[in-house]
Amino acid sequence: MTKPILLVVEDDAGLARQLRWAYEDYEVVVAGDRAAAIEALRLHEPAVVTLDLGLPPDPDGTAEGFATLAEILSLKPDTKVVVASGHDAPESARGAIARGAWDFYAKPVDIDTLGLIVARAFHVHALEAENARLSALSGGDTVLGGLVTSAPEMLKVARTVERVAQTDVSLLVLGASGTGKELVAQGLHDASRRAKGPFVAINCAAIPETLLESELFGHEKGAFTGAIRTVEGKIELASGGTLFLDEIGDVPLPLQVKLLRFLQERVIERIGGRRAIPVDVRIVCATHRNLEAMVADGGFREDLWYRLAEMVVRLPTLAERPGDAVLLARHFLRRHAPAINPQVKGLAPDAADAIAAARWPGNVRELENRIKRAIIMAEGKTLTAEDMDLAGGDAHALNLRSVREAADRKAIGEALVRADGNISQTARLLGISRPTLYDLLKAYGLQDAV
Questions:
Q1: For 273-290, how does the pLDDT look when each residue is reduced to its tens digit (9 = 90+)?
Q2: Which of 94, 167, 301, 428 has the most CB atoms lying inside 10 A of its own CB?
Q3: Calpha distance 150→258 (Å, rounded)
Q4: DSSP summary character for residue 271
Q5: What angle do CA 85, 87, 88 make, to 5 degrees?
Q6: What CA–CA distances, in Å, run from 426 to 22, 23, 214, 227, 263?
Q7: pLDDT band at 323, cuts 50/70/90?
Q8: 0.70 exceeded by pTM
Q9: Concatenated DSSP letters for 195-259?
Q10: Pairwise CA distance, residues 392 & 232, whole Å
Q11: In this structure, how many other beta carbons lie within 10 angstroms of the beta carbon of residue 1?
């Protein structure tokens, strides 16, 4: 089996030889400067690169190393670059991660620890490549024409809507604000036999009660003061297609009666008119309200509820869609960055972790707005948690360092139990040296566990 290729960019020949010997599970390619690194990248296309920031002609600085990092990621964005440097480690670490490095390691190099980081990088790269392959086979992460998701909850909704689309039954979409109710309605229309007809949407909560009837049913010339011409309503304009009534729970009770008659008879009368106008239209409604509770309280007609709720789908919040927040963030970044800030190419690891950890009370709409603001404010090529204004609060609980520390703590604890506290056996179980294990125990305050 061909060994995976690891590119080591290191100007210290002795350390480069040491790394070559240490990584016997990989085919190690060594480059001593930026030109050689880029040549090796083009030739071998490695999945993982370890990069020393102090490269000639600036061995005592970081400028050449950061320039190499930028060129690597511009040529092969999926490369996992592990930056190893002794130059002002905290500042270099922040700069490296902000510029898109996968991880940072402060020199002097501990072969075992760096080896674990490299192994994780290869593992993550393989997972991402497999996900990309599966996405390509399944048509990507877009379903129902426009929904970006990989969450089982939303995929179930999409399958239901696709089946409903082949009929003419009314659909009621329930969900919090910003969850994508109109996108579901548009997807149903596009998947239906009415796709060539009009898709007309109206937000019932955004129109004053006195004007809503006219907006829906239209009016004849002279029907009321200011009616200087005959106007077709939204229902009439949607004939042959789909009418989307958003926030149906905000329709006043008197108008609910007229809406019910239209749903039963499929005819309308304009305000001030006497002629019944037949309308062939598919009805999709949506609301964030609890209509069943409103029916019980008398705020919504029960007979209208049954007419609208021939099929009901409930959209989960973004917090209930595991993995979708980061997926959507990347989607919005690709959509908006070219027009707003073309230098932004991706999400930094800390931003992805912070996005996944956030609760997003405003759901997808809030996420999109936050991404657009972050693109405007970003100074580097990747959005950071700071750009997203997610650096504080719970976002710290799910950055790369804390996740790795939690995983290390768990693995060390389990290995200590299995080895009955024996350090040598614990180190063998973990695949690291005893000195490295002692360092980890000290770093995590686990000496008392031994």
A1: 989 999 999 999 999 999
A2: 301
A3: 41
A4: B
A5: 120
A6: 21, 22, 76, 85, 71
A7: confident
A8: no
A9: TTS-EEEEETTSS-HHHHHHHHHEE-TTSSTT--S-EE-HHHHTTTSEEEEETGGGS-HHHHHHH
A10: 52
A11: 3
